[in-house]
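Give me structure tokens for this 340-residue protein.
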Amino acid sequence: MGKACVLGAGAWGTALGIVLADRGFSVVLWAWHEKTAWVASQNRSSPRLPGIIVPENVEFTSDARGALAGADVVVSAIPSRALHTVVENLGGLIPRDALLVSATKGFDGATLERPSALWSRKRPDLKNSIAVLSGPNFAIEVARKLPAATVVAAERRECAERAQEAFMTPYFRVYTHWDVKGVELGGALKNIIALACGMVEGMELGHNAQAGIISRGIAEVTRLGVALGADPLTFAGLSGLGDVVLTSTSNLSRNRQAGIAVGKGERLEEFLRRTGFTVEGVETVKAAKALSQKHGVRMPINDVLYSILYENLPVRDGVFLIMAREKREESEFSVSPWRV
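Here you go.
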């Protein structure tokens, strides 16, 4: 299958490296720090994936130039907060004929750009060879080769199908999609809903409240997605509803765990210090707040989360603000006979 380079040797990058290795690629996992690469190479594992042994056809390195040289497939699995630096430093090293697959879920904090847009801006010559991968996938379960489904989206069908072929295994089922914006936005914005569900759980407000947060959360995420040019139906698929359900209901979700801690009264900064977790939803709330204001989109759940995380609103006061909003219809994207 050729050579694959995965940028980012964390849990998700390592899991995707295992998938590519099982497809027959010679895989190089790139880590920013030399020590991280050396320890992973010695142990044949990632500290973020306990109990997982990495196949022998996976190499760890901190040498970006060597890792990217001759790569047929390049996967970007960098946390969103570090992506801009990686794009600027390594973007020029990606081979011109490589398939570039963005697997980062989030936004660039400075520009509010989607990850694939960052790569496209840096390497416009690769625009037709960039795909995004997103879905309801916990890295540890993918690494354990438990059954999972995901979606790859690209502007050109050939590019999406090339990515599908690269990742499809007996345990990792890959679907294709044309809606790059929708797939990418769903993967990022779902973390908002997971944080909110966690807070509801932490306050012991019941399953009804969590179901309401999930369904109305999807509505406002879809609302923003449509304003940004996505197809509303995309948010009913794997990268939308599928990822929302997974991330909002499982205790493997870091975003849900963070929300639970805040709901119980722990300060977010203390949770992050105590666990060492990367919680993408924290920055996503800020990005969604800015984007919703820019495009005039109503996002009441996200607005309350922003006030809790960044303006010291007591979490229980946030529940009151959500429940006391003005009366509204539920349907937004269908044609109601009431409006005819």
